[in-house]
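The methods section describes the discrete structure representation at length, but only in general terms. The central task, working out the structure tokens from the amino acid sequence alone, is never made concrete. Nothing conveys this as quickly as seeing an actual entry. For illustration, here is how one protein appears when written out as sequence plus structure tokens:
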Amino acid sequence: MGMTLREIVFDIGGGVPGGRKFKAVQSGGPSGGCIPESLIDLPVDYEELAKAGAIMGSGGLIVMDEDTCMVDVARYFVSFLEEESCGKCVPCREGIKRMREILTDIVEARGKEGDIERLEELAYAIKEASLCGLGKTAPNPVLTTIRYFRDEYESHILRKRCPAKVCKAMIVYRVIPEMCTGCQRCVQVCPVNAISGPRSQPHNVDLDKCIKCGACYEVCKFDAIAGDAIYIE
């Protein structure tokens, strides 16, 4: 108690694996809030976490790096909390479900202007009117990700772009011809045979067949597979 998040994450935990950049830490379990890098020196105690929109909760910490989509993180935890709701009170039962539906639309490129405000309105109503602690804390992942990572929500909704390249509906995989050696590693791992091309020649991705699993991206040793975000002006 009283140690900073920086001390816990970097001194005790050893920092972010693989040299990746620290992005956020969620405290307190699924109902906890996501605390950004700018608050990494926050002391861990009940009052300070509450000011940041988080909770002590179960005492757990989940560290997230630059490859984490904060909108998808919010959707993930809200989906878990929807399952955990006993269903007794309407604000928790219906409110969390509706938040999950809006978040799902956003990460699947169906988000629309006004969704952020709808999520905030729902979140405050659920916190105010729910009967138990689960409902009163369930909106924390949504409210803190909006509070600290609003730009990611706006990118998903307005530009149909996932900055972390996590949301599959917003990614198009393609081969960079000048980088491709034609080694055929991507051809071998593609589960739907969407990649073709003769050995030692640049390959091609059939976008109609591609299921955006990312297997080709993972195995390519020459950085010849690009996971480009769909961009809409």
The mean pLDDT is 93. The chain has two domains: 5-158, 168-229.
